[in-house]
């Protein structure tokens, strides 16, 4: 789990390091430039003298980094050239100083982008100081750079990417590599910024957070799977958790199957599916390991389980609504963990009073459409600030919100949020959300002894999202992004856990 920052937080860290700790700004800039040069030279290997590098620099400190990069490369014997964009009168003090040093070293400056063919283009136009949509000359410049051939490297952020939301502000540089400083910016984790950045390297340049400052935003990467617990050698099917999946309706038994498969993949002890009678035979045929309950003795089913999944494929009938309400109400009374998914969420949107049944024991797993129904906001608005949207729903309901998308954000009611960096486009296939609901329930069941109020439900939900994405990546390796189906993601989850737990 790594800290992720917004632009404002990054600026705060900069000024804390410079003003409070006394590290001169030019020292930080030199370190930042050296880190970028280090990455460039790794790629150039022994052939760096053959490289022709164009550093395109804006008038702020991001431009200052670019000028320093060109100068260091020049000193190392590379053919590096500076292109200065923007109004010289708007240059920051650091940028002016870098221009002066580069002039002292006689680093070439060009006024024409096409005076040569370049092997590498370094984008140092805007970093965390981008504040508005890019228009006019800057827009034309970035469009031209995108048309040019050569390896594209962005300094701190691809110019045009909103460092907070990942949105493209009018236009953005298309990078193959982004070297970002101190912390990954949120906009490098969220699409389209994540795609525009290419590979991301986070470089330590000596800028840190103030001691005691509490980070609120994190990225979850595959290495974080080591946080998953070991399976107790002396456990039994009772201690490994009992999941009740309230799922499936007429013609929708697949959702119940996939949700239960997701839960089994995490290693839970038992799964029981509460579903209409007509689903009994297909479900028992497909998944004989699961128990099937088609009676109306919901009380008994509730008492049996440790964790509930409510909603996959359940439909929007009155009967489904009664079931969902019954289980939500009981779970609130007895503080049993709940994953509320799919039509469970659509029913919640139609019955806003049910929000009273929500609290920290509940994980809501809306995709963008369901989130739009729940909040009344348009998908466009939600996509423009995914972390903000997830946090707002978590704060309003007191539940954990897993806002599913190509980059899923999990938010806890206390304001913490986690962005998952696992998963791939092959997961955009019917039923993969159903698998996630089971995986999330499985994660909550891994600690049946811990009372729900002592569990870090948000963190384990985020870990479940990461695991589901890693399972999807595994499925893509085996079946290909086009060929993989939701069931392959459940198999992938099991394989990832096998690797992780050495069995
Ligand atoms: N602090 C430090 O010592 C360190 C900082 N570091 C580096 O500094 C970067 C931050 O530098 P920064 O704060 O100067 O902002 P930066 O990203 O260069 O952009 C500001 C310029 O862009 C302009 N501008 C903005 N939007 C615009 C638009 N749409 N269209 C046109 N113009 C627009 C804006 O103009 P204005 O809004 O003032 O008119 C201003 O001139 C950071 O990302 C990292 O690379 C590292 O070296 C480590 C040490
Ligand atoms: N492009 C993508 N990259 C990574 N993960 C994705 C992508 N598209 C979808 N997913 C994941 O797949 C799942 C889809 O869930 P959902 O939309 O509920 O599907 P369904 O309703 O068919 O089960 C979510 O976990 C989502 O994060
Ligand atoms: K940049």
From TrEMBL:
Q: Where is the YjeF C-terminal domain?
A: 220-500
Q: What cofactor does this chain's UniProt record say it requires?
A: K(+); Mg(2+)
Q: Record-annotated residues binding K(+)?
A: 62, 123, 159
The record's listing under InterPro entries reads: Carbohydrate_kinase_pred_CS, CARKD, Nnr, Ribokinase-like, YjeF_N_dom, YjeF_N_dom_sf
What does this protein's record comment on cofactor binding? Binds 1 potassium ion per subunit.
Q: Enumerate the residues binding (6S)-NADPHX.
A: 61-65, 127-133, 138, 156, 255, 313, 367, 434
Q: Where does AMP bind?
A: 404-408, 433
Which reactions does this protein catalyse?
A: (6S)-NADPHX + ADP = AMP + phosphate + NADPH + H(+); (6R)-NADPHX = (6S)-NADPHX; (6R)-NADHX = (6S)-NADHX; (6S)-NADHX + ADP = AMP + phosphate + NADH + H(+)
* Positions of the YjeF N-terminal domain: 10-213
Where exactly are the transmembrane stretches of this chain?
none
UniProt signal peptide: none
**Record key words, sorted:** ATP-binding, Isomerase, Kinase, Lyase, Metal-binding, Multifunctional enzyme, NAD, NADP, Nucleotide-binding, Potassium, Transferase
EC number(s) per entry? 4.2.1.136, 5.1.99.6
Q: Name one GO biological process term.
A: nicotinamide nucleotide metabolic process
User: Which GO terms of the molecular function aspect are on file?
Assistant: ADP-dependent NAD(P)H-hydrate dehydratase activity; ATP binding; kinase activity; metal ion binding; NAD(P)HX epimerase activity
Task: Give the UniProt family note.
Answer: Belongs to the NnrE/AIBP family.
Q: According to its UniProt entry, what is the function of this protein?
A: Catalyzes the epimerization of the S- and R-forms of NAD(P)HX, a damaged form of NAD(P)H that is a result of enzymatic or heat-dependent hydration. This is a prerequisite for the S-specific NAD(P)H-hydrate dehydratase to allow the repair of both epimers of NAD(P)HX.
Quaternary state and interactors: Homotetramer.
Q: What is this protein called?
A: Bifunctional NAD(P)H-hydrate repair enzyme
